[in-house]
Amino acid sequence: MTSSPPSPSASRPARPGPASSRTTPPPGAPAPAPSGEGAAVMLASLAGFDGCFGCGSEAESGLRIRHTGVEDGVVTCEFTVRREHQGAPGLCHGGVLATAMDEALGGAAWLLGNRYVTGRLETDYLAPVPVGSDVHVRAWCTGLDGRKAYLEGEARVGGPDGPVAVRAAGVFIEVPQEHFVPES
Ligand SMILES: CCCCC/C=C\C/C=C\C/C=C\C/C=C\CCCC(=O)SCCNC(=O)CCNC(=O)[C@H](O)C(C)(C)COP(=O)(O)OP(=O)(O)OC[C@H]1O[C@@H](n2cnc3c(N)ncnc32)[C@H](O)[C@@H]1OP(=O)(O)O
């Protein structure tokens, strides 16, 4: 995966190096124009729900990912790697990092104004992430095809301009509200 998030001046990012054909939008699939309406729909849908393993304040064992903003369709969020996130000694577990990418790509999908679940998530791990690191994640949509939204993202260590540790690409599938199970 070698694509970059769109710059503020570029409404449609180039995507020169997809990781797999299954996370590449089909030719001609439109990339969404950034809109503030999707964020409003998303936040209304999720109002009062704090149980998300990625970002929920009530998920005691969750990652406590902090959503920090949306600009031109790019979602940004961050979390701090704790000791309980270790895989190999002193380093963040790859599944934890995949969770963070899922969270960010999912957020960028929900920004489109519909509800989505992860269908496929691909991750490339480029550098180890030590315990204590602040991980800065951003994600954006590369195309829409029916119920399928194609997303990409990257995680950087130490700051938003730090070295890239993870790149991800995914396909999220639009579902109705009824897909979800009311909390018991
Ligand atoms: C201050 C600033 C604030 C900013 C705020 C920003 C963010 C706010 C915070 C949060 C954002 C909110 C949420 C996002 C957060 C986290 C996201 C976490 C997401 C998850 O953690 S979610 C759990 C894991 N996930 C599942 O639990 C899915 C299990 N699964 C199923 O529920 C079904 O499997 C389903 C529904 C996926 C499909 O089932 P179905 O019967 O409805 O539809 P069907 O099978 O016909 O597929 C329809 C079309 O999707 C294609 N398709 C299907 N699967 C595919 C695959 N794997 N790869 C590629 N394409 C696939 C088909 O090929 C077909 O394509 P086509 O239309 O072209 O034929």
Automatic annotation (TrEMBL):
Q: Where is this region: Disordered?
A: 1-36
Cite the source lineage.
Answer: Bacteria, Bacillati, Actinomycetota, Actinomycetes, Streptosporangiales
Q: How is this protein situated with respect to the membrane?
A: Peripheral membrane protein
A Pfam family hit: 4HBT
Where does it reside? Answer: Cell projection, Ruffle membrane; Cytoplasm; Membrane
Top-rank taxon of the source lineage equals Bacteria
Instruction: Name the residue ranges with Low complexity bias.
Output: 9-23
Which keywords describe this protein according to UniProt?
Answer: Apoptosis, Cell membrane, Cell projection, Cytoplasm, Fatty acid metabolism, Hydrolase, Lipid metabolism, Membrane, Transit peptide
Q: What is this protein called?
A: Acyl-coenzyme A thioesterase THEM4
Q: Which organism is it from?
A: Actinomadura harenae
